[in-house]
Amino acid sequence: MSSTDARDAIAPGTKTLSTTEYRWLACRLTEALRDALRVAESRGQRIPDQEEATEDA
Q1: Mean pLDDT of the region 24-30
Q2: How many CB atoms lie within 10 A of CB 27?
Q3: pLDDT tens figures, 28-54
Q4: Sign of the C-alpha dihedral, residues 25, 4, 37, 16?
Q5: Residue 13: left (phi > 0), alpha (psi -120 to 50), or beta?
Q6: How many CB atoms lie under 10 A from the CB of residue 6?
Q7: What are the boundaries of each domain within the chain?
Q8: CA atoms within 13 A on the CB side of 49
Q9: Chain CA centroid to CA 55, Å
Q10: DSSP string, 19-53
Q11: pLDDT: is 21 or 9 the higher one?
């Protein structure tokens, strides 16, 4: 099941997935959200606070 399959799986009018397929989909979505959070936190750590930037200037 690819990312387009995941999108198709939740579209109205599609066939009902098995428990295993829903579990797989939930795991992949969790992984994607974990990766997005990790990237956001990493980028946030590299951006100085507004107050710190004005003090350094």
Answers
A1: 93
A2: 10
A3: 999 999 999 999 999 888 877 777 667
A4: negative
A5: left
A6: 15
A7: 3-56
A8: 3
A9: 35
A10: HHHHHHHHHHHHHHHHHHHHHHHHHHHHSPPHHHH
A11: 21
Instruction: Give the three-class secondary structure for 3.
Output: helix
- pTM, entire model: 0.56
Q: What is the pLDDT of residue 3?
A: 59
Cβ contact 9:29 at 8 Å: no
* Encoded tokens for 54: 């004005």
Alpha-carbon span 16 to 39, nearest angstrom:
33
Give the tokens for residue 2: 């690819």
CA atoms of 35 and 29, how far apart (whole Å): 10
Count of all residues that appear for the chain in the document: 57
